[in-house]
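pipeline/complex-builder :: batch 7 item 3
reading input block
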Amino acid sequence: MTATSATASTKKDGNVHLGEYLFSRIKQLGIDNILGVPGDFNLHLLDYIYRVPDLNWVGCCNELNAAYAADGYGRVKHLPGVLVTTYGVGELSALNGVSGAFAEQAPLLHIVGTTGRPIQEESWLVHHVLPKENSLQEPDHLVYQGMSEKVRCCSAFLNDKETAAAEIDRVLTTICQKSLPGYLFIPVDMTWQPLDAARLDSKLDYSVKNEDPKLENEIVDSILSEIYASKNATVFADVLTARHRATDLVRELAKKTNFPNYTSPLGKGILNENEDRFVGVYNGQLSLEGVAKSIEASDCVLFTGPLLSDSNTGGFSHNLKDENTIYLSPDYVKVKGKLYEGVHFFPVLKKVVEQLDVEKISAESKTAAMPTISPPPVIDSPLPISQTFLVDSMSKMMRPDDLLIVETGTFQFACSDVKFNTNNSLLTQIFYSCIGFTLPATLGAALAKREDAAAKNDKGRVILVEGDGSAQMTIQELGTMVRQGLNPIIFLLNNDGYSIERAIHGPEQSYNDICPKWKWTKLLEAFGGTEGVDSFSTTVKTREELEALIGDEKFMNSDKAQLVEVIMDVNDYPWRLNEQIKLMGGKNMKVFAEYQKKNP
Amino acid sequence: MTATSATASTKKDGNVHLGEYLFSRIKQLGIDNILGVPGDFNLHLLDYIYRVPDLNWVGCCNELNAAYAADGYGRVKHLPGVLVTTYGVGELSALNGVSGAFAEQAPLLHIVGTTGRPIQEESWLVHHVLPKENSLQEPDHLVYQGMSEKVRCCSAFLNDKETAAAEIDRVLTTICQKSLPGYLFIPVDMTWQPLDAARLDSKLDYSVKNEDPKLENEIVDSILSEIYASKNATVFADVLTARHRATDLVRELAKKTNFPNYTSPLGKGILNENEDRFVGVYNGQLSLEGVAKSIEASDCVLFTGPLLSDSNTGGFSHNLKDENTIYLSPDYVKVKGKLYEGVHFFPVLKKVVEQLDVEKISAESKTAAMPTISPPPVIDSPLPISQTFLVDSMSKMMRPDDLLIVETGTFQFACSDVKFNTNNSLLTQIFYSCIGFTLPATLGAALAKREDAAAKNDKGRVILVEGDGSAQMTIQELGTMVRQGLNPIIFLLNNDGYSIERAIHGPEQSYNDICPKWKWTKLLEAFGGTEGVDSFSTTVKTREELEALIGDEKFMNSDKAQLVEVIMDVNDYPWRLNEQIKLMGGKNMKVFAEYQKKNP
Ligand SMILES: Cc1ncc(C[n+]2csc(CCOP(=O)(O)OP(=O)(O)O)c2C)c(N)n1
Ligand SMILES: Cc1ncc(C[n+]2csc(CCOP(=O)(O)OP(=O)(O)O)c2C)c(N)n1
């Protein structure tokens, strides 16, 4: 229906086709890869990707995987992962991935190609349309749009060419500012509508500003006074710090102040672990010994980017008193009990770091003795490679700039104990905790990392640790990694099923078994890799085998996609998982019993 | 938290635990297999499956696949496919599968294990819970329940033990009556609540009754008179006939009356194609020559179970006049223009068949000459195995009682031309048209067929024809087929990508390529099969190879899971697809142009 060639721009008479406008805007932001799956309601739209120089289409095997990949991309790039799906069938398939991005605040743009405007208005019962329960009633073509309402921060239904450009800009800007998913719904006959090309000359500004600069300055001042007054200040970085692009800021804060500093499980890596003043991962009662005691004794915890979910707070066992804590959140700032709702922490933190006068910090705070932190308890396993051994091995794996991705499962509760190298980061979903997420997220993360590797002189690798049960969910995306020439290292923990669930309930129940006898080391090849050329797979059973691998520069510096099957025991659980289950299980039992008493 | 052993019943003092009540009810209906994926909010519930004798848990690789499998099960069994998922992450992953079941009216029960009642009331931010955009607001644990509202016909949130048993019964009965999806949301602390065991002594009655028996009789009479008055009556069975368990009825109607009879593309197989009076598949202008002319000349079309979507009506090109047609739908009956809303066709059709006096049918109707139907146009392909050749091969494949499953894609538009054998049926999703559906649906269908094979003396096989692009979506469920010892035959059409999309738009665009170089014949093994023992894979490129396979009794009667990779040309499209695109493309262009004129 569009007559122009696939690569020629549609710019003409000061106008540009909607599709080209949209993808030009996306490219302007610094995004080079678009993820998704084609379908007849988005094919015309996809044509415009080829008209924007250096913008690439990355087709995925299915839409849920593509959504996970877009989320992974967004977490690494700090710009929206862009996902294109088709009306209904593709859109709904992706929903759980978008929901995870919403829960953990990853920026994501979901573009849905929909039925054409006249066909919607006339309610044609074309394929993918959801009929009413009573077939005498006309179908509502907009019904799917309602289903994603709670997992997006903004959306636009582009059915009017007069407003479409502004709506695209609004949605992109909002997603970047809020670091949350947003939607664009584009009827097929809108893709070639002419929009004002001149708008493209000014770039989008998505910097975050607080409404009331006077109030903001007040808050900055009060935070600075608290810092100066403190005898024992600390910095504690949680995950939303990174999501809201404040990693560098908080690193600077830690460096400038010399305060002992901590991260949360989800925030691990935001502060450099091999700097002198890094203490450890604070996870309430489920921290390494010494960590909780020291941060809880602080009279001024600068707590950035909090996400206060069960597994990110040691089962709600944080013990930071309001009178000792300064919360710096995207939704509020709270200075020792005084709440400022609707104030975004970023501009505040920026000013704090800029205005901080190091001279005014108390000597006690600056030079506070570093607490002694005990090593993690060793848990034995009947098999040579235990969770404990794996933690040590991963500590040896990590090189500067590496990104470690850890799937929901047993090792997610062990990975807090991995010792990070310079500028390492962690990508894990310990709050939304959706399994199957990380394998496609690794694809997206690796794409994002590659886009900027040259510019940033980033030689870091992407390393995934994932259980067998989770891997079965989304395994086909291995093929897309190979197709894209990516070189992630995947440690596939073969422990015969859903071990974390066994730890929680029903260790012997067959529902915790998974599809057996998968030939894990054959999969990269089956999905298109050529062993030794663009892929490499191996199995490790002994400690020596794993050590040899990590000692092998060929493995450590490979340009191939690599999969290492690690044989582990079915009931090998990390210490923190055992403790988490004990703690949360206890809390659950208590409230269940109380509830039962009240509702006999 | 539950103390009893995994297999002992929980019946005691006239009570039974909710979990056991639920699964006992399900088993009573005649359902032997439960599909899904475990998660910590449903583990306790799953324990009760083992307490119901001969009820099996079938774990799937992921929830979307499990939903597709449950849909496939429901379409074959005509009882709800039962799907169990966990709160949020699992529940949303399955949504698109449930939506497809809703669109095409497959009975499906989606059981979601949710957070416990007190934890909901206190709004704990535990894993899987969706936070509010503003983290100062408390999360709403019920938010996911709203997302599936439009794709279910009923639901119950079981948070009260006094009403839970009645609610379970209501939801199960409604699903069976409406042949649509329904939901049960079960907080984890409800699973062990005591319900009245005595209710289980009386079975659920899900027979459909019309409210007004007098009106029903009037309708029956008027239909009988129309039949008797007709000179040229026909029977036309569409897919909802089968969904509402009226296949036997409409077969009896066809047999008793001796009227020439037809099916729709989706309804193919409902009427036996090797009976004398079967004419063909009516698909408006996109029927084989002779079909449309003859049915459109009928003065009394008994049209059962209509689903009037684009690809099931030859792009809305049905030409049945109201004054010649009797519509028999679950939502209405319409006798030659006279509409009876809210009347269900089943009891009406039953009475018509029972009361029909063959003597009163006109001789013309009973002995109407059978029209001459032209064979399908032959479309050439540069490769030996063309769509046309495949149609002929599948016609030779089919043996009595076989179930043919066809994925959305090129062959879906060819399969109307496959010549069916006795009691063959077709499972395809030509309306919701979601790719990836059929591979897991094959798993569910094969389970359902196996459950009743002995009782029904059903020796039929399950045969899937699927394109490579669709197969990539859900490929891992091959492993579950092997795990369950099933023996489907899978024809995997390797034509280098999304050919049906190429036919629609962008034949050369790279977005229509898929992940390349998959080793299709290695997959059954990679996913746990042992070649020659429980699986068999092969590639066919020539006509002779495919013919030899179909001539090989070992292949035709195998107890292994079998995968045949069929090499086909990337631009080989069946004739009906070309026509469909021409017709619908033309309609689209016309309305887009008109719309553009009205909205310049
Ligand atoms: C989509 C989804 N389905 C189900 C679950 C429930 N669940 C959480 S962890 C887990 C098991 C993970 O097993 P595996 O990946 O093998 O890791 P392991 O615990 O064995 O290390 C399951 C089923 C979930 N979190 N997300
Ligand atoms: C979940 C979903 N995503 C995308 C689509 C759009 N779509 C319809 S058919 C098709 C291609 C199918 O290709 P393949 O299975 O290889 O079959 P072929 O047409 O080549 O025979 C696609 C991508 C869809 N219908 N459903």
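note: The first strand of chain B starts at residue 15 and ends at 17.
queue -> next item
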